[in-house]
Design goal:
This protein is an alpha/beta fold and 291 residues long. The chain has two domains: 2-138 and 168-178, Rossmann fold (3-Layer(aba) Sandwich); 186-290, Homeodomain-like (Arc Repressor Mutant, subunit A, Orthogonal Bundle), CATH 1.10.10. It has 13 helices and eight strands. The strands form two sheets. Strands 3-2-4-5-6-8 form a six-stranded mixed beta sheet, with helices on both faces. A two-stranded parallel ribbon has the order 1-7. Strand 4, helix 4 and strand 5 form a beta-alpha-beta unit. The radius of gyration is 21 Å and the shape is flat. It starts with a strand and ends with a helix. It comes from Rhodopirellula maiorica SM1. One of its GO terms (molecular function) is transcription cis-regulatory region binding. It holds the Pfam family HTH_18.
C-alpha cells in the first residue's frame, strides 16, 4: 500500500502555481524512492507550466547528530542562492519545517519571499511551525481501512494481490506558509483573493466585478491570461475542492454540504461535481471512505 505520489506532486505543483510563482523548488531525501518520485512528478508539472525548477536533496542516512548542523548550512546555502519569490515543495512535513527554520535564521520572509509546502498534514507540527505550515493531506482514513482489509484477508488465508494499492491524497490544507499571491496584476490578485475568501458564500462573477471595480470583459480576459481559468471556473473549482474534503472527512448529507459550499441546490452540486470529477458525490465518497 502506497501513497499516490503522482497525485501528491500534482496537487503541490497546482497549489504553488496558482499562487503565481514562476520559480519553484523541491527539497527532499535521496534515500527514499517516494521522495524521488515526488520530485520527478513535481518537476514535470513545473516544467509543463514553463516555470523554473530548482532541487536540493539530502542523503539522510549519511547525517548524524554531529553533521546535522552542516546539513542545515548546506540547505541555507541552497536557499540563499534561489531566485525570489519562490515556492518550495518539501517531500514531507519535517523537511518543510527544516526549510522554515532555515528561512527564519536567514531572516527570509515566509511566505512573501519563499512559500513552503509539506506533505502529511501533521496537525501538531503544522500548527506549531513558524509560520504555520501548509501541507498536502493524505487520506489516512482510507489507508487504515485498506490496511485492515488486507490484513483480514491474509489472516483468512485469502490470496492477496501483489500489486500495490495507491491511496490518493485529499487535497491541500492551506496555512500561512503559502498564503500569498505572487501575481503582478493587482486586480487579478484582488479578484482571486476575494474568490478564496467568499467562494462558499454563493458569490458570482458580478460580485467580483463590483469588488475590483473593472468591467467584466476586462476582468475575465486578464484573469484567464494570468490564472488560466475564468473567474467562474475558479469559483467552481474552490467549491468542488471543499465538497471533496467534506465528503471524505465528514458524514454530512449532500444538502448540508451544498449549504456550506455555496451551492443553492443539491441537484446543481451533483451536476457540477460529476462534470468536474466524472463521478457523483456518492461515488466519490464511497471511493475515498470505502463506505
Amino acid at each position: 500500500m502506497e501513497t499516490n505520489d503522482a497525485e501528491i506532486a500534482s496537487l503541490a505543483a497546482e497549489h504553488l502555481l496558482q499562487r503565481g510563482f514562476k520559480h519553484l523548488g523541491f527539497c527532499g531525501d535521496a534515500d527514499f524512492n517516494w521522495s524521488k518520485w515526488r520530485r520527478n512528478y513535481f518537476r514535470d508539472g513545473v516544467e509543463k507550466a514553463d516555470c523554473d525548477f530548482h532541487s536540493y536533496e539530502t542523503a539522510m542516512k549519511e547525517i548524524n547528530s554531529s553533521s546535522f548542523e552542516d546539513e542545515r548550512k548546506r540547505i541555507a546555502e541552497w536557499i540563499k542562492n534561489l531566485p525570489r519569490p519562490i515556492g518550495i515543495f518539501a517531500s514531507y512535513d519535517i523537511k518543510a519545517q527544516l526549510v522554515l527554520d532555515v528561512c527564519r535564521e536567514l531572516e527570509i520572509a515566509v511566505p512573501e519571499e519563499i512559500a513552503v509546502l509539506g506533505v502529511d498534514n501533521d496537525e501538531l507540527l503544522c500548527s506549531l511551525a513558524d509560520p504555520p505550515l501548509s501541507s498536502v493531506v493524505p487520506n489516512s482514513r482510507k489507508t487504515g481501512f485498506e490496511a485492515a482489509r488486507l490484513l483480514d484477508a491474509m489472516m483468512n488465508g485469502e490470496e492477496v494481490s501483489k500489486e500495490g494499492v495507491l491511496i490518493e491524497p485529499l487535497g491541500v490544507e492551506t496555512r500561512q506558509s503559502t498564503d500569498i499571491l505572487a501575481i503582478d496584476d493587482i486586480d487579478v490578485a484582488a479578484a482571486l483573493r476575494f474568490i478564496r475568501q467568499h467562494a462558499y458564500a454563493g458569490i458570482n462573477v458580478n460580485d467580483i466585478v463590483r469588488h475590483v471595480n473593472i468591467s467584466r470583459r476586462v476582468l475575465e480576459t486578464r484573469f484567464r491570461n494570468v490564472i488560466g481559468r475564468t473567474p467562474h471556473e475558479e469559483i467552481l473549482r474552490q467549491r468542488i475542492m471543499r465538497v471533496k474534503k467534506l465528503l471524505a472527512e465528514t458524514d454530512m448529507t449532500l444538502r448540508q454540504i451544498a449549504t456550506r459550499t455555496g451551492f443553492e441546490h443539491t441537484e446543481y452540486l451533483t451536476v457540477a461535481f460529476k462534470r468536474e470529477t466524472k463521478q457523483t458525490p456518492t461515488q466519490f465518497r464511497k471511493k475515498v471512505t470505502n463506505k
